[in-house]
Amino acid sequence: MTPGGHELPLATPNNLCEHLKTAALTRPDDLAVARQLANGEFEELTLAQLERLSDRIALALREQGIVGGMKAVLMVTPGLEFFALTFALFKAGIIPVMVDPGMGTANLKTCLAKARPDAFIGIPKAQLARRLLGWGKETVQKVVTVGGSGIWGGKSLKRLLADVSVDAVYQPQLPAEDQLCAILYTSGSTGEPKGVEYTHTMFNAQIQSLKQDYGIKPGERDLATFPLFALFGPALGMASIIPDMDASRPITADPEVLLRAVERYRCTNLFLNPALLAKLANYPGNEQEEASIRTRLASVQRVISAGAPADIGQITRLRKLLADGVEVLNSYGATEALPVSMFPSSQLASTAPQTDTGGGICVGYPVAAEIRIARIDNGTIGNVKDAEWLSEGQIGEIWVKGAVASAAYYDNPTATSKAKVADGTEFWHRMGDVGYLDSKGRLWMCGRMGHRVCGAEKTWFTLPCERIFNTHPGVSRTALVGVEIEGSITPVLCVELAAGIDADTVFSQLATLSQEYSHTLGINRFIQHDGFPMDVRHNAKIFREKLAQWAQKRWQKAWTA
């Protein structure tokens, strides 16, 4: 029984929204979501209000003919409606299809064609794009507009809710634990985006890890800068504070806006991708400002960084702005499996020398998955018996197994068979990354498997090689790519130089530096680049495929000159 005399629901792993129901009954007046408006003010929902609103939306959707088993595209900006709609869809057994807008319109249209949605729920801007670009035109039968009228077809959410009692209660659907409950398309760093299938069991495993491995407790408040992670907030009893920023382009966020949100709500948790982490770390202009920001961030108990490896220097700078003992937790994983490992910032100093000399980036200890390293194989591996496990310190492909890993890509058996390996009744997920395990069981990242440069007699891995050259004071950033020269794949280093640096002088020094380490031997061709093409979401992943094409054209032009 709750303090108010309510009967608690039975604990069940079958539906993510049951976590919200429990939190709403035990702490009804606690904050669930707060969204910062353009004028700096905030709108809020308590846990009880979010529970009731999501119930009403589930009933309204049912009246509109959007029911369990259907797939519904959800294109709504992070805010109160986004949270209420998502939990409503889960309650109703409707499968939300979430597509990262950062992937671009062409990929987005392809993703929606593959998902074959029955309904489209979106803001007016998304509805306009749907009409103009033909998103889901083959299958979408039901349309709901959020934050606008129904002129785009269907009805507005506001109109639908007007016909549902404010006290209406919806009994959530309890699907089988392995039943599909969401399809997530994210802007991957390589290839065409694939729809990752999520089940409630997978969501629950992630929630459990956030509780046990990250120590998140009910009553906390999170600066929610990434929509998917933000959804875990109410399920954890943690309020999600949504700052006024474009979640699809975090690099454009204003650090001052983030700090105001943290300060107003005394946020205990910050979820930052590398771009946002760097924004905050570099915000203070002097020691006086640094002291002021440290005061404003005094409530923060942890920082979770994910999406791409954060720069060690940026993490060090950010730690100076946090209270003593507060960790920056560098998390490794992917949409298909998250979290996999985690490494606290307090231990970075012990691994930095190995990273600087080409040992890769330490991403820490396994948290919610078993990790093994397999010999690199570009083909499909049907059974784990056909894999060759590598020993400690040997670089190979990173495989993970656990409840936090998705079992399949939606309607993509080719991609599924490539990424999943049967192990009895379980499976291993091939991360597509290369790395190794050390004597302490820690995982070290050495880059994407598809980005390694394979010569006739040697293979060069991106992260270990690039770090060697990145330590040069005249270098801002490097990217290793393979270029075909005289019929052979040859490593070429693309280099962003620091301002005012002479390229010829630096390249001569880099050529000498490459001879000092066994893993960089053979890298003796360098090209200056003014600004690498980067991913929109994290601004930390280099689009090496584009860079390799550019480098190939540069060398071909040089040969014919």
TrEMBL record:
This is Fatty acid CoA ligase family protein. InterPro entries: AMP-binding_CS, AMP-dep_synth/lig_dom, ANL_N_sf, ATP-dep_AMP-bd_enzyme. Keywords: Ligase. It comes from the Bacteria. GO terms for molecular function: ligase activity. Residues 22-410 form the AMP-dependent synthetase/ligase domain.
